[in-house]
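Sample pair:
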Amino acid sequence: MAVQLTTLEPPRTATQLMMADDDTVHLTRPHPRGRAYACANDAAAAIRERFGVDTISTGLILGTGWGAALEAWGAPEAEAPMHEIPGFMSPTTVGQPGLVRLYHVDGVPTLVMVGRTHLFEGHGCVPVVHPVRVLGALGARSLILTGVSGTFHPQWPLGQVVAIKDHLNLSWVSPFPDNITVDLSQVYDPALRERVVSLDPNIVSGVFAMFSGRTYETVTEAYAAKNYGADLVGMSTVLEAIAAVEYGFRTLGLSVVTMHESGGGEIDQSSVVAIAEAAARRCSPLLRALVAGS
């Protein structure tokens, strides 16, 4: 039988809570697939209680700089720091404040994660995809993932927004337990992508290659990805998109070009954030329209 942690014990990290193999962690909703899924259920229950919402229709996970898209959305109906919700970790990447927000966009209940956990932070895959599993536990049916990337196409200007049509998982990591096999032949919803282009014809489509990071890829690694068919390279989005397939989400991925691969010179992280923020503000009406139509 599980035993409630006492206040005398030091708090466990999100990964310890989800992956512990003993009975010292109290999870109120056991799950047949294990602690990671049970923790997602607990997080969903905490959000319901704290935010006063029963189900969510659409979820957004906003990467570096993309929180700027919310400036025109007004004040959220509810907000909490990520680390106060079971299983979530505070982002360590610049341009990601680490907030969970609730909005109703034209009546559509929408949960927005302003920031994410990356594989390169060293906690494994479970906390990376935890927000996706929480959205699944809350009944969401659509997911919008956003982030930043480098591109091989010099004709794509910095700030170009790209709708992801497919990906290369060059992290070689899977978010699924060993007993789950998932068809990844259509991860990203083509109808959502077509709607994006109809709303903003300046948006193009491309294939996103994910490296695990934390270092940026070498020139040879980048061109290997290009030869595999990638248009973009980055360190996020892919694992979350894979995890979403398990729930049957209609998934859209959007990435802002913040650098040109093999362009030479050092990468300026503050410039990456500024480019992403400007693109996110331009995309704010687009995101609202997508949510309202979900």
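The first strand starts at residue 58 and ends at 62.
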